[in-house]
Specification:
Blueprint: E1 25-30, H1 34-45, E2 50-55, H2 58-67, E3 72-75, H3 84-93, E4 100-104, H4 109-118, E5 122-125, H5 130-167, E6 171-176, E7 181-184, H6 186-192, H7 196-199, H8 204-208, H9 211-227, E8 234-239, E9 245-256, E10 262-271, H10 273-295, E11 299-303, E12 309-312, H11 314-320, H12 324-327, H13 332-335, H14 343-354, E13 359-367, E14 373-385, E15 388-397, H15 399-441, H16 447-473, E16 482-485, H17 486-495, E17 503-507, E18 511-515, H18 519-533, E19 539-547, E20 550-557, H19 582-591, E21 596-599, E22 608-613, E23 618-620
Parallel strand pairs: 1-2, 1-3, 3-4, 4-5, 17-19
Antiparallel strand pairs: 6-7, 6-10, 8-9, 9-10, 11-12, 11-15, 13-14, 14-15, 16-18, 18-23, 19-20, 20-22, 21-22
Helix pairs in contact: 15-16, 17-18, 18-19
């Protein structure tokens, strides 16, 4: 009769802690025949490597298993309440992997097959010589325990291995012989955006390998499973769930059974996609830089700190007249590409680079292979290339420009000489003419003539002013702009006007500005304009402030100011009550370097001029 009472819960025994090989074998004997059970227990307890526990029913056995762990269970087939086959199905159905030996008097073939199918590890029939039966049972117990302990050790080893794979900062996964996924770690899931539930048991190649590579890689995997897995590292593309292809550097390890057969493969790899992209970008960048270096219109030189040529581009070959191969590895001083008089300067340039300072621009005369000379505008920079400290020289051939400048300088010299002589002659003639007109004006006999003479005198004075303007205007832009201290330049120019009735206040900080050498005339003309047209001014102020648009200079006086309709006209040539040239010249001088000037004052409250200096054309004095 079968007991319908629910049997005690048996804890699953899929895995367990590793047992040392010297540990005693714990055996549970289950038999409803007290005499046979006692005899079997006596025999087995006589063995030092065994510990024996016993009970009479399958229900009792399950109760004992709930509180104890056994290495082997020896079970009779016919038991009250629950027979041996039912016990096997119940225990194995709950996941308990404890080995079971069916030890019974039933010897029919059907019973044996049924027991083995239900999960029995061995089947032993009672009867015959008891001693021989018990010895055979002893052998089966030891064999079953050994197999079980090997299984547990293997499972523990696999658990630790997978645990290590789970926590290493690399991707890892395992496939069975068919290529189905049996394990993957969190790093792999993070990279591919898959969940473990969605991919377990799926074919790896169908999920993660691009179509173009799928067949080839499947064949390679099956060949590795049959013939042996290579330990070489290799690159493989993987498709994420979002369709992105990642590049992975992989290694593989065969998973083998106790018999040495390959049961699957463990893969461990590193996602090198970003590294590959960075490498490719670096390679592309190097190619782009190589093209720029090689085909740049300016000559590029690379030298070591001793002056030995390391590399140069095509423009450098053209400038020097040498082939690259003739110069690489040679010192520029030994070759003679620098004129003797400039060798000290070149050595000085190299000494600055040892201190990490760039140099230039500066003109340098180089000697070509044919002995001709070429003038270059040279910049040099300390650089680091492939672990070496080098010096990059960039030279622009300005030989033609220098020749043109020299020719232009000669022409300008002749024109200035001609203008000077012409002005001198005209002014001398005007002086004589003015004297004659003054003599005619003193004749009191001809009143009408005196009026005509006065008009002619005014015309002569106008001609003189125009000649004087031409002399001043021709000097604008003749010399290159230079850096000038703003405050001292303005103060010197305004104090040099010799006007003692006006107090001059300059508060411009320590700025320098890049302007035409005639910059002082701008401040002189502003003060002259204030005195002539301001209606009795007593003070002028010049201040500076920096903003996002550059540097703003503000010149103010306490005179009558400029009417609204004249704010633009005052910068026109010839406009005004005097010569009409002062503010026009000031605007032209400032325009040489892109600086602007405008009047922003309120009529009746004094004149106010804003001078706007663009970024890059001013700097603190301490910056150089």
């Amino acid at each position: 009769m079968i007991d319908d009472a629910a049997p005690p819960k048996v804890p699953p025994r899929l895995t367990s802690a590793k047992f040392p090989s010297t540990a005693k074998i714990s055996v549970l004997m289950v038999d409803d025949d007290p005499a046979l059970l006692d005899l079997a227990c006596r025999f087995l307890r006589s063995r030092e490597d065994l510990t024996i526990d016993s009970c009479f029913t399958a229900i009792d056995a399950m109760a004992k298993m709930a509180g104890n762990m056994y290495d082997v269970i020896v079970l009779d087939y016919e038991l009250p309440g629950m027979d041996g086959i039912q016990f096997l199905r119940e225990v194995k159905g709950r996941g308990d992997m404890t080995p079971v030996i069916v030890f019974t008097g039933k010897g029919r073939e059907g019973v044996v097959i049924e027991a083995l199918n239900a999960g029995a590890d061995f089947y032993l029939q009672k009867g015959g010589d008891p001693r021989m039966g018990f010895l055979e049972l002893l052998y089966m117990i030891r064999e079953a325990a050994s197999r079980n302990r090997s299984r547990l050790e293997l499972e523990e080893s696999e658990r630790r291995f997978r645990e290590s794979l789970e926590h290493i900062p690399l991707i890892s996964y395992q496939l069975d012989r068919e290529g189905k996924i049996t394990f993957c770690n969190e790093h792999f899931l993070e990279m591919t955006s898959w969940t473990r539930e969605d991919m377990m048991g799926e074919n790896w190649f169908d999920l993660f390998i691009p179509v173009r590579d799928r067949t080839r890689m499947k064949r390679a995997y099956q060949k590795g499973v049959r013939e042996g897995v290579s330990s070489d590292r290799y690159f493989t593309p993987l498709i994420t769930r979002d369709g992105e292809i990642r590049h992975v550097l992989m290694s593989s390890i065969a998973l083998r059974s106790r018999e040495g057969e390959i049961e699957g493969v463990t893969f461990v790899g590193e996602d090198v996609t970003e590294r590959e992209r960075a490498t490719e970008e670096m390679r592309s960048s190097e190619e782009r830089l190589k093209i720029i270096f090689e085909y740049a219109p300016d000559a590029f030189f690379l030298n070591d700190p001793a002056g030995v040529f390391v590399d140069m581009n095509r423009a450098a070959e053209q400038v020097l007249g040498y082939r690259k191969e003739d110069l690489i590895g040679k010192n520029f001083l030994a070759i003679g590409v620098i004129t003797p008089e400039e060798i000290p300067r070149a050595i000085n340039l190299f000494s600055h680079h040892i201190e990490g300072q760039s140099q230039g621009p500066g003109e340098l005369t180089l000697v070509r292979r044919d002995g001709s000379r070429v003038v270059v505008d040279m910049h040099t920079y300390p650089v680091r290339f492939r672990g070496r400290e080098l010096i990059l020289g960039i030279a622009r051939d300005i030989t033609e420009r220098k020749l043109s400048e020299e020719a232009l300088r000669r022409v300008n010299g002749k024109l200035q000489l001609l203008n000077s002589v012409t002005r001198h002659d005209i002014l001398n003639t005007l002086t004589a003419l003015t004297m004659y007109l003054e003599l005619l004006g003193e004749d009191e006999k001809e009143p009408e003539l005196a009026k005509t003479v006065e008009k002619a005198t005014q015309v002569a004075k106008t001609i003189r002013r125009q000649v004087e303007f031409a002399r001043t205007y021709q000097d604008i832009g003749i010399q290159s702009p230079v850096w000038q201290p703003l405050g001292p330049t303005a103060l010197s120019a305004m104090e040099g006007a010799g006007i003692t009735t006006v107090e001059v206040h300059v508060d411009t900080g320590d700025f320098e500005i890049y302007a035409d050498p005639l910059l002082g005339n701008v401040f002189y003309n502003l003060l002259d304009n204030s005195v002539r047209h301001g209606g009795g001014i007593t003070g002028v102020w010049l201040t500076a402030m920096q903003d996002e648009r550059g540097l703003k200079l503000v010149y103010e006086d306490n005179g009558s100011g400029i009417p609204r309709n004249e704010k633009e006209k005052i910068f026109s040539r010839g406009y005004g009550k005097n010569t009409g040239f002062g503010l026009f010249l000031s605007k032209e001088i400032l325009a040489i370097t892109g600086t602007t000037i405008k009047e922003t004052g309120t009529y009746g409250k004094g004149a106010r001029f804003e001078i706007r200096i663009p970024p890059g054309l001013f700097r603190p004095e301490s910056a150089h």
